[in-house]
Amino acid sequence: MSHVAYELGTQPACWERAAELAPARRAVLPQPGERTAIVGCGTSYYMAQAAAVLREQAGQGETDAFPASEFPRHRRYDRVVALTRSGTTTEVLDLLAGLRDAGVPTTAVVGDPATPVMTAADELVVLDFADEQSVVQTRFATTALTLLRAHVGLHTPSVVADARTALIEPLPADIAGRGQFTFLGRGWSVGLAHEAALKMREASLSWAESYPAMEYRHGPISVSGPGTVTWSLDEAPDGLAEQVRATGCQWVPGGLDPLAELVRVHRLALAVAAHQQLDPDAPRNLTRSVILTTGEEAVR
């Protein structure tokens, strides 16, 4: 079994632990009314997007999400939360150093506690039980999002139940042999759709795209047709499924909690990788962490 296959299967248990941890770490996470930014890189950025929408939906306060490299340092926030599995990513560490100099309170949610982020951030939430050996992130990202979701009161045991279903429910027939995938979301699940597409690219080298559901109809649907898949991680707008099917594209409706739907996509990525005889533990051109040095750039 690959590292990533094992780790994606442990997600329900990790989510339960994160939800149990959230009340104990309440004081170091954004408080109601705080103007907050959540940052990350790659997968963590997409989780930040989802968490920001959830926090605003819960009425907790204005919340933005940025890639760590694109954080607008001229804006003022009451707190910045950094999501970083490795705790070594250059952009995150540089941003935290700058925010400390500017007097902005920071919290890092990290998987590996023996890393530089432990001293770079003002406060920490350590999810070492969700850390991973794999390059391709699954359980750390979804566990960090579950922590933030539970913190704003939007996590329920049914989410974990749906995740367990996602691990055993058969994938749609003949889907592993498809060559093009599009993932759609709405609201907080737009970030999950972006992450779903990234997983397909990383693990299986597939052509994968992602859009807000209604934006898909404004152009991207033109590339859909026989041999392609469009997967909705959330409830689709009325009439969209029929328009997608009319192109000859395979339509996959989301029936579980959107985060559990992402677990189904994790399984799909592994199935497509296996179909193409790829090793998901050795994704092309990727490393577990991006550490930039003079004249050298490591790609996520």
Structure characterization notes:
There is one protein chain. Helix 10 (240-246) links the parallel strand 8 (228-232) and strand 9 (250-252). The two termini are 23 Å apart. It contains eleven helices and nine strands. Helix 2 runs antiparallel to helix 7 (157-168), helix 3 (43-57) packs antiparallel against helix 8 (189-204) and helix 7 packs parallel to helix 11. The protein has helices spanning 3-9, 11-21, 43-57, 90-102, 117-120, 139-151, 157-168, 189-204, 213-216, 240-246, 258-275; strands spanning 36-40, 63-67, 79-84, 106-110, 123-126, 180-185, 207-212, 228-232, 250-252. Residues 294-300 have low confidence and may be disordered. A five-stranded parallel β-sheet has the order 2-1-3-4-5, sandwiched between helices. By secondary structure, the chain is of the alpha/beta class. It holds the Pfam family SIS. InterPro entries: GlmS/AgaS_SIS, GlmS/FrlB_SIS, SIS_dom, SIS_dom_sf. Keywords: Repeat. Residues 26-164 form the SIS domain. It comes from Streptomyces virginiae (Streptomyces cinnamonensis).
